[in-house]
Amino acid sequence: MPGLSARPQPLLDDSSSNPFFDPSVPPAHFFQTVARLATCSSASNGSSIRYFADYSSIDIAPGPTSFSRKLYGQLSAAEGYAALKAPTPGLGGEESMGDSTSSSLFPVRLSFSTSQSDPQPSSSMRGPSSLVGESAGTTEVERLRKQLEQAEVNLHTALYGPPIGDEKPAELVALISRLNSLVPGGGLADRLRAARLDRIGHQTLIQWLGKEGLLSYEVLAQFRGSDHVVEISLTMTLCDPFRKVVEEFSQTLCVFDLPNAFTALRILRLNEIPLLNMDLTLIHHLPLLEALWLESTGIGDEGVAHLLALKGTLHTLHLTNNPGITSDCAPLLCCFSLLRVLSLDGTLMDMPGLRRLAVTFHAHGFELDISIPSDCREYLRNLEKHYLLRPSAPLITDPHAVPSLSLSALRKNLKAHGVLSLGGQAELEERLRALLERREADLVCREMFWMALEEKEESEMEGLEGASSEMG
Hints:
The chain is an alpha/beta fold and about 475 residues long. The protein has helices at about 25-40, 130, 135-160, 170-180, 190-195, 200-210, 215-220, 235-240, 250-255, 300-305, 330-335, 350-365, 375-380, 405-415, 425-470, and strands at about 50, 55-60, 65-70, 230-235, 265-270, 290-295, 315-320, 340-345, 370. Helices cover about 35% and strands about 5% of the residues. It is elongated. Residues about 1-15 and about 40-130 have low confidence and may be disordered.
C-alpha cells in the first residue's frame, strides 16, 4: 500500500473500467464522490480512506486498491451525475472517514491512463445503480444537447461567418471588442473616437480600417456576413510601401472565397497589390460586384479570363499599368456587355485589339468610356498619315464594293491612299479591302474614344502649362 509521501501509480485494469467517467465533471468533485462511496464503516472491515489535498490521487486501505487521476488543467464545470454536484464538506489534506452511508464496499478498481486523454468507460464493470441510472442518462443527454448546439453554431459560422448583427449599438460594441483583439496595437475604441467618424457602421468601420491598413484576413472575416459592406479597398493594407499586415496577398483574398462572403459588395479596390492571375478566382464569384480596380497588379490576359464570371454585373474595370494585358484579351472584354468604363492605359493593347472592341460595342449600341495606351492615342490622332481620310468619288469607302472594281479602278484607289498598286487583280482587291476595313474600324475607334482622347490631351496640356509656370 503506498504511503502518503508517494503518489500511487495509476492502476491499469484490463478486466474492467470506470463506468462513472464523465469529462465534464471536475476532478475534485469526482474524487470526493469516490471517497464518499468507497468508504465503509470501521465495524465492517476497518478500511479507511486517505487522499491528497489537491485531489490528484486517493489512497484506500487496506488492500491493493490505490488509484490516481492526473489533472489536466481547469475543466468546464458542467454538472454531471447527481452525486457529483456538491463537494463533500470538510475535505482536505489527510483525513480518515468514519461511518459511511453505504452498507457495503463496491469494487473500487478504477482504470485511468497517464496519456493526454482519459479512457472511455466499458460495460465490464458494474457499480451502484444509483450512479449509473437516471442521473447518468440525464447527463449524457445534456452533454449531447450541448454538443449539438455547439455544432449548430459552428456550422452557421462556417457558412455565414461570425454573427455581426444589424448595426445596433450593442452589436457594434461587441464587433469592436472582437476587432480590438485582432488589430495591431489594440485600443480600437479610442482610435475610432479620435477619428471622429460621422457614424459608426459596418461600412464606415471597414473603410477606416482600410485606410489604416488593418484589413487582414481575420479582420475581414468579421465583416463577411454583413449586408452593409458595399465597398472595400485593400491597397493600404497590402501595398508594399504601406503594408502593416504580414501575410500573403492570396491569404487575405481567400476571405472572399468563403461561403456567402460579402454578398452585398459592389466596389473592390486592389490597386498596387502584386497579384497572380489565379488570385482573381478568389473574387470572381462575388454576386453584386460592379466596379473592380486592378491597376498595377501584374495580372495578364489569363486574369481577365478569370473575371468572365463577373460579366453579368461588372460595369467598371480598371486595368491600367498591367503590361501582361494584350490584344489577345480583346475577345474576352467584348463579352462584358454591361461594361461602361474601361481603363487600358499602360497595357500592351494595340490597335487590332482596340478595333475589335470598338466595332463590337458600336454594333450593339453600347457607349464605353475608355482610356487607351499612348501608342493607340498617337495613331488615332494621325489617321491621315495612314490613308486618305476623306476620299471623294469616284473613290470608294465601302469594303463590300471592292469586287465590283476594275483593275484600273483598284490601282487608282490604292494610289490615292498612298499604297503600292502593283500586282494582280485578286491581290489588289485583298489589299484595298483590308485598307478600307481598317479605315472603317479606325473611324469607329476615334468616334467612340474621342472624348477620352480630348480629356487626355487636355490633362497633358494642363500638366505642361503647370510645369512651365513653375519654371517661370
